[in-house]
Design goal:
- About 70% of the residues lie in helices and about 0% in strands.
- The protein has 15 helices and no strands.
- The mean pLDDT is about 85.
- The chain folds into two domains: about 70 residues, no CATH class; about 210 residues, Orthogonal Bundle (MetI-like fold), CATH 1.10.3720.
Length: about 290
């Protein structure tokens, strides 16, 4: 008589688990479809980079190279007309310098907006935030004229300094700084620390996830930037990788194999940066709340 009541609770969890598995099937199928959609261009890029030039425009489309070759990679690396190593160095140097400068400026702007009390603090914050509504293309000509007046055209200065003041970075850091307990700051002040010492020894060590997150965003944005370097980097020696790769796409002929090979090589640093910082990216975004 007592066996039935004991077996019923065991059957219920099994049934619930089975129902959850059935319910997750449509979600899994949807995620699988999305994964295929997002990965298809990446696969096409890699596949085309290993094709001879004749196969890149063949019909019907060949998703798998019939005669795979490394010729495209060897040609773009050894081409006398292309300067792949120089373009890669320019992109890496500019992206790294831009990221460090932007992080420094955003930290120095976000800290007082989050941790200090002064008149007009919220007004300044909303003023900075409102600049995000201005499209970058609107400031293209005024910024270019400014670079001309500074005599910075075709220099690293023109590639690095415009855009360093990042309103999104200030917003992201401010929201994270607000969530840090004030007791830590007050304890440091009791020990005689000033504002810069508190920022360096208390706030920044606790903000590594959000700093890494913002750093990856800035690095990827600068690495993939095409429009601005196209105008200010006039000589082949100063061109960045996205601009330099367009030399394989001419007015009447596009060398798709070489273009895809160069694009695949250009994607490696961004993928490596993302994989190394993935843990901090998730943590930095998760811990950044909408606090006031």
């Amino acid at each position: 008589m007592m066996a039935a009541p004991l077996e019923a609770p065991q059957a219920r969890p099994r049934s619930a688990r089975r129902w959850r598995r059935v319910r997750d099937v449509p979600r899994f199928i949807l995620l699988l479809i999305l994964a295929v959609i997002f990965l298809a261009p990446l696969y096409w890029m890699l596949s085309t980079s290993f094709k001879p030039e004749a196969e890149t425009i063949s019909i019907p489309v060949q998703w798998i190279p019939a005669h795979p070759t490394l010729e495209n990679y060897l040609e773009i690396i050894n081409s006398p007309d292309g300067k792949l190593l120089r373009w890669t160095w320019n992109s890496f140097f500019v992206a790294t310098a831009f990221t460090l400068a932007s992080l420094t400026l955003c930290v120095l702007a976000a800290y007082p907006l989050a941790r200090m009390r002064f008149r007009g603090r919220n007004v300044w914050f909303w003023f900075i935030l409102s600049s995000m509504m201005i499209p970058g293309i609107v400031t293209l000509i005024p910024t270019y004229i400014m670079m001309l007046n500074f005599n910075w055209i075709d220099t690293y200065h023109a590639l690095i300094w415009p855009g360093v003041a990042n309103a999104f970075g200030v917003f992201l850091l401010r929201q994270f700084f607000i969530g840090i307990p004030r007791e830590l700051e007050e304890a440091a002040r009791i020990d005689g620390a000033n504002s810069l010492q508190i920022l360096w020894n208390v706030i920044l060590p606790l903000s590594i996830p959000v700093l890494v997150t913002l750093g990856v965003f800035n690095f990827m944005g600068s690495w993939n930037n095409y429009v601005w370097p196209l105008y200010v980097a006039t000589s082949p020696e100063m061109q960045t990788l996205p601009v330099g790769l367009t030399s394989f796409s001419q007015r009447y002929v596009t060398e798709y194999g070489k273009l895809m090979a160069g694009t695949a090589l250009a994607s490696i640093p961004v993928l490596v940066a993302y994989l190394l910082a993935q843990r901090y990216l998730v943590q930095g975004i998760a811990l950044t709340g909408m606090k006031e």
